[in-house]
From TrEMBL, chains A, B:
Residues 12-72 form the HTH tetR-type domain. Keywords: DNA-binding, Transcription, Transcription regulation. It comes from Rhizobium hidalgonense. Pfam families: TetR_C_27 (PF17935), TetR_N (PF00440). It comes from the Bacteria. Residues 35-54 bind DNA. One of its GO terms (molecular function) is DNA-binding transcription factor activity. This is TetR family transcriptional regulator.
Amino acid sequence: MTFADPIATDLEQSRTRILEVAERHFRRIGYHKTSVADIAAELGMSRANIYRFFPSRTAINSSVCGLVVKEVAEIVLAIAQTDAPASKKLADLLTAIHRQSTRRLVEDRPMHQLLVAAMDGSWATINAHNEDILAILKALVREGLRTGEFKVQDADEAARGIITAFLPFFHPVLVEQRVQEGEAIAACVHAQIRFIMTALGTSDRALPEGISA
Amino acid sequence: MTFADPIATDLEQSRTRILEVAERHFRRIGYHKTSVADIAAELGMSRANIYRFFPSRTAINSSVCGLVVKEVAEIVLAIAQTDAPASKKLADLLTAIHRQSTRRLVEDRPMHQLLVAAMDGSWATINAHNEDILAILKALVREGLRTGEFKVQDADEAARGIITAFLPFFHPVLVEQRVQEGEAIAACVHAQIRFIMTALGTSDRALPEGISA
């Protein structure tokens, strides 16, 4: 039997409170305008105390970014764990990743800006998130190989191919450019998923509903 | 028999001279630090005179950008016009587009920055360039369909799929992020070209040399 370490739990609670306040400030005034002093003031702490929990301002930014992308990872994982055919799950999962990205741009601009910075600065949490998504995709491709839906030689390479081919529909900078240009994005997303399905050797008749031309 | 319109020719020469000076300034101090006054001074012109040839500062930026991407379009067209098999031309053409993009980032940073702005602002010359490249790709996919190298239902959709799937390897912002992360880009480029070839129904044995796994 193990007991939770009370000191570790206190540390975790303090970190969580700091991140909650940081996230609220980021949403209100933007991450680049939020200072560690702002966060400390709201928590009735000294700045030095904040630095006991986060080594740097960048660490706070990166951790808030981790919270934002965790939401996407949870949606993606939930789709991957359903009983649907692998090809349908892949189509749904890519559509969901795209939707989260455009939704953030339109409805949650400050967090969109945070993700732009995260991708640009290659922050630890965004890299970890990308690896998580890639791992889910690799497992999904292997699942599709077992069920005979996909026909590829190298599942890992195919998973990387999928995510790269779909990057224009979820990378924050590219999504912003696409939305600015007022492209008919939904049709483009479907077409790109069809392209990806062809690369996976999915026959036309096996394409999920809504994706077939 | 037609004669060149001397007034039109004069106008064209003046435009060319203005763009040459602008390009030189952009390379030396960056496009955002170059003022219309700088360009006018070097040409011994008034600013008002510059505006006779270009309606705005943005029009000058966009035209210089047009010169930069023209170079890429010429390389791509030259590859598309050789007698090689369509699959080899496609692989060579994508590799060349990627190479130009990384070369610019490393050796010609001011023009890289100009292209970042062009993509972000959706400037007329970059949009026209993207349409040109897409047209070349569409023709190449149709060529591959005729020779039996490619098997796709819709050549135009396939061409758009190719360019979207390869965007991470030539979009200036994404190329910069990739280079920063120090990824083994050449291997990634080859893998992505293989993924694209699979989507086009190219059999493994037909993959161009250097691209096969």
